[in-house]
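Page 42, continued from yesterday. The earlier attempt failed because a stray header line got pasted into the input along with the sequence. Redoing it now with the clean sequence only.
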Amino acid sequence: MSYFSKSMCETEMRRFMREVINDLTTCNDQKKLVNILSIIRFLANANSDKNDITKNDDIATISCYGLQKFQEQEHVYKHLFCKLYYSQILTIVLNKLSVELISEFPKNKIRTHIDGLFLHGPATHTFLVLTRSITNVSQGFKLHKCVSLLEDFLCSHRLANILKSTCSIDVCDPADDSNSSRLHWDQLIMAIVSLPDNMANKLQEQNSEVFLPANYIPLIGRDFMQTLQYVHGMISNNTDCSLEFICRLFGKLCITGYGDILWDTILPGLYQHVQTDYIWCRICMRILTGLPDRCLESAILPLLNKIPWYGTVGKFVGDCVVDNPRVQYILCTKLLLHRFSEQVLLLQNVIGYLASSHTRRQLYLQVMKNLLQVWGDVSAVKHTSYEQHLYICRALIICISHLKNEDKQEIKGEFHRLLMPGIQCHIACADVKIRKQGMVVAEIITKALDATGPQLKFEYEHDAEVDALFSLLVVPKEPSGEEIEKRFGSLLIESETTREPLKPATEEINKKDSNKTSTAETPSDLDSDDDMEPFDMSHDLPVTKSKTPKYIRDCMEGLICSDDPDRVEACLKASEHLIRANRDAVREIAAELCKVLLHLSDNFAITNFLLLRFAALVAVTVQSPEESAVFLTNEFYERNYNLRQRMDILEVLAAAAQELSSPEKSDKVKASKPVEEIAPKCEVSNWREIVEKRIESKTRRFAKGPRQPPPHESANRFSCVAGYFFYPLMKHFDRKESTLDLLGEDLLILGRLVFTLGIILYAALHTPNCQRMGTTLLEFTWSLRFHTDPYIRQSVLFATSMIFLVVPCHFLLSDLQSEVTETKSWLQDVVEKDSNTECKKLAIQALVLLENSLKNEFDKGVSVT
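This time it went through. Structure tokens are written below.
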């Protein structure tokens, strides 16, 4: 079309629409309004053409406006109308809507002329006008009508028409200005993504279920699938198409937080298509690679969390990790080193994707090297949380599972060089869980690099976490169709085989039981010896060559004698009972007995040796607390002890302090025993009892005393000896010895020391010395608050919680007000900035204890006043 003819069409269209808009705005006649709406619907490509209008007797109105002049260039005028005037017409119609106007129209006319104008015209303009009108219109009939129209628009999948129109490239149309086109796309994307929030803000409690994210996003997902089917058909027919708008909308939905719901909707269908069709693979790759950089992570992460097998990741992503630096950074660095997830599937998909192709093999080896460097770095172990470190351990083991024989010789020397400092770092770690993880990973790596060479073998307890780490060595296999269907729910599988109906579990159990009873009733299995009852051997004692000692000194001499294993075992088993039964005799030899037990070693592999020795040490400390505590606290800092013995000293002191602070068991038993159990029972009942029972049965009581006897009062045995347990443990903590360096390498002992001090302080609850002990412990832990090792910080937080529990609140508010204020600000910093999850939990617990204590104190003050 020439420029002159185009300008003529625009001039004629401008004149024509000026008359139509004027009549539409001022018209109040129903018949004339219907004719105008019919013309508008005809120009908007509704479900009627020119012949339909002629049948509806609208020729006179059309002739009046000069519509017959448009017959030669009908498609041009319709295009101009939809592009320039359709949105304006819809806005005028919405402004003109009222209850009075709608009541004049028959119901079929409303559906045809008003609703049809919105539901069968250009979808893009309709959607933008409706969303804009809902935002601007106040509560009333217009708002409800716009909401109803928008619901019908979405439920009829008109969004799919919008998406399809953005994919088509119409070479016949003149090229629009790029800036205006992108601005229009931005408005449309913003309107689609923000619709759930806008509707929730506008409608609030009257919001429709269609606009809830749980329903709205799956609806968009189904429209996405329709659009991708349309694009697949265009590509199959060698027709040009564009996915730019789809990529931008998809990325915006994912970065807004709807990525999980969107992938849940479209992934089952895409997973089925990419298995057999290369065009679908190219479409998925184009969508992911065409996303804006800021949206890549939010779109790829949910996908990797949901794909059931790593072998399919390449069909969605392709080799873009090699070509795209942003994708490479996300997959190889950010998801593996800067993030952590509880889902093992994410790691299996990322690492399996990198290792499954020769083009990505070098990236896989580089990733494994980076993981090993971070795993063995001392600073990383100290400043990362336990969950993050477990995540890195899992990633390393999965990398090892994909390692091939041809790669082992290439990386063997370098990996051994990186492994050795990592093993040393983990063994020296104070956290038992991290130390166990290091042992497991070291064993797996050394065995994988050289299966025939010397192997590392550590002693650790096999628990569920260790078994889970070893299970990651098994490379996941491709899931079957049934597993895929079970994972995706309603995934349609084209070739579905018939399956046998499963028998109920109850039938299987009944069948087995019947088989057992039938076999048991056969006469061949009967034996006459089965009727004989076995002897009761539960009270039999094991026969030993050495006699059980009767006195404490004999027991101590037997423990010193290391030549006779039977005698040592007999003395060790009898030691706790003898110590607790002879308190006076223990006081004379308490220090010597503690020394013997502390230096006693398991040379004869005695069953429960550690438990028996620990119980004996606790019994000595309880029976003679002052002498034992003085000896143990002084020996804690001596040179001739290893780390295990120092740990035993701390554990014994903590357990003894807890037992001394609790009431004695013997007193409880005597107080709770009724008189009838202590006095001898008479075979003949006393006549007084019979009389008292008769009187009691005929006596009417209006109030009863307590059903249970009052608790038995007993003195706190720990009150007078608490200082012997507490203060000597802090006197030489900063002294460096050849065998003990608490502020250096022996962080495990330092952390356990602070834990023990907190336990001893809690055992001194309600004692006169608890205020001074709490103040001293607060000063002692002040310099350890910002320690680099998380185990030390955990122990300091535990001790702080014990201070808040034990020290009276009025003392905290008066004498320790400044210290408590600084402690509170430090706890808040730990909650916000600490990298260790356990430290954050302990800090929150300490803050809650402090706030509850202060609240109770203020409540008491208010009640008194």
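Notes: Residues 46-63, 171-175, 490-528, 666-685 have pLDDT under 50 and may be disordered.
Reminder to self: strip header lines before submitting.
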